[in-house]
Amino acid sequence: MGRRVESPSSINTYKQCARKYYYQYVTGLPLKPNVYFARGHVAHKVLEKLFSFNPKSKDELYETALRLLKKYWDEEEFFRSNNHTSYFQETSLMIINWLNYFSDKLDKLNLPFDESFVVLKPIQIEQNYSSETFKVKGFIDVVESFNGKIRLMDYKTSQLSEEIPEDYKLQLAIYALLFKENNNKNPDEVGIYFLRGGEKVLQVNNEMIEYAKEEVNKVHNKTDSNDINDYALNISNFCKNCDFYQNCFGKNKSLGMF
Ligand code: SF4
Questions:
Q1: What three-state secondary structure class fits 69?
Q2: How far, in Å, from the CA of 18 to the mean position of ligand 1?
Q3: β-strands 189-194, 149-156 pairing
Q4: Which of 9, 167, 184, 190 makes the best surface tag, with the fewest CB within 10 Å?
Q5: Statement to judge: residues 56 and 144 lie in one domain
Q6: Would you tell me the crossing angle of helices 113-120 and 85-108 to the nearest 10 degrees?
Q7: Overall domain count for the chain
Q8: What is the pLDDT of residues 38-71, one digit of tens each?
Q9: How far is the CA of 255 from the centre of ligand 1 (A)?
Q10: Ligand 1 binding site (Cβ under 6 Å of any ligand atom)
């Protein structure tokens, strides 16, 4: 069997629980729609589309972003059948937080608004990268070029944390690997825009690239089989919210821990 093309999500799923990986990526069982996924999808679309406009002022920037949010929220299948007003308000705040953060950066350039917007505009948005050599792919939310440095950034709707969590670090390392494979050079930095406020950035070095290669290869080596018995359950607190709970434990939530 040819090697499956992995992604940061599939690799992190395997690391969280091999059985979950089996259900999702070997048998192809779908995940259930949920508010967090739908909200993340909408927020990403807003920030992706925003940079195709060339706003002439901060007011226009904010108005455009909030108009896009309303449009994509209304179009999102999940929100058509579910009333999630509080989530809409919370997501509006996230977008405004990010705009405030971005506006501060624009101000620091001391240029007219439209000129500073062009300087900070990403050079690539939602770019699909893949590596035939390592059989891995991923969408990089934002590629920025500023002061001669290349930076790969990912948007997250989760809480800002002191340290970038390990699963995000691996995701970013894989993006750095994908960028290197496609451009023959390392990016300078990778990081996260936390939409609730702030960013966290890591310097890219060869150690990070090697870490990504090792983790991708480890998952390839462990996922050649189609036999469910080769994918161990990892019973943890994640199980109670897992889409495959019933596949693992049946309808009766009888595990003492839940
Ligand atoms: S319910 Fe638990 S053991 Fe089963 S797939 Fe999900 S995380 Fe893994």
A1: helix
A2: 8
A3: parallel
A4: 184
A5: no
A6: 100
A7: 2
A8: 999 999 999 999 999 989 999 999 999 999 999 9
A9: 12
A10: 17, 19-20, 233-235, 238-239, 242, 244-245, 248
